Amino acid sequence: MAEASPHPAGAPSREPLLDKEFLARIERLSLLSRATLTGRMRGGRRSRRRGFSTEFADHRDYVPGDDIRYLDWNIYGRLDRLFIKLFEEEEDLTVCILVDCSRSMAFGEPNKFRYARQVAAALSYIALGTEDRVGIYPFDRTMRAPFPPVRGRRNAMRLISWLGDLEAGAGTGLLESLTSFASAAPARGMVILISDLLDPAGYKDALRTIAGRRTDVHLIHLLSPDEIEPVVAGDLRLVDAEDGETIEVSVGGRILEAYRRTVDEFRAGVQETCRRFDIQPLFTSTGTPFDELVLGYLRARQIIG
Fold this sequence. Notes:
The protein is an alpha/beta fold. The chain has helices at about 20-25, 75-80, 110-130, 155-165, 175-185, 205-210, 225-230, 255-275, 290-300, and strands at about 1-5, 45-50, 55-60, 85-90, 95-100, 135-140, 145-150, 190-195, 215-225, 235-240, 245-250, 280-285. The strands form 3 sheets. Strands 7-6-5-8-9-12 form a 6-stranded mixed beta sheet, with helices on both faces. A 3-stranded mixed beta sheet has the order 1-10-11. The longest helix has 24 residues, at about 255-275. Mean pLDDT is about 85; it is low at about 1-10 and about 35-55.
């Protein structure tokens, strides 16, 4: 009897997550947020808020107490009325990237876990280049110690190296992990979850915890080609990736067809849940070349630009 089991988690690969050539290709990209986001420091992102910054945006009537340095004396000379000049503010964005480090991610070729960390590294590098703050939040059964939010490209290689050292761990606890994250996450910003969502307890309640709160939420739902369209047949012993439970099955055409329907229903359910909670989903597999995902799909979905 043949045995089908996931690839072992193992130690992190010594090969860098991103090479210099790829970094050069994403040098001038930036993350695109749908929301009006308030940062604590001025950054490189144009805001729809009005304040007193550097680039003129509009006028409003003067009211007592306004700073007279911003009076428009040219208009006063023409209309004999006092107007205050308003300027567009620039603000930074807090980007929180949640990386699924559960044992089910250490599967497939290319390996899902490495692929997920490559995506996280690329998005981090892009965001840090536009002076956004970036934090990485790894989880398996629970939320692990994060890489706290930093800003500036000077921190990019340290963050990428940290991602490279992450190892896949225990089973999946989506609800506990995302609830823990949501309780301490910034009230506004961008959240990007990279996960296969393979949790026996389900994913719906977990996704609900990170939705809303004026946060722009994206899901990169990552599966391997073998999980979407397995190439197996005959008598097999299947081993659960996370708890080691085994089951013996005889795989034929009917079983494979039922499996495909289950995968389709799973993805359709994720799509509907994301629609309900205003989460932007991107479905992909490790069969899509990594650079094509970042430079093609993510740009087409206007996650980066």
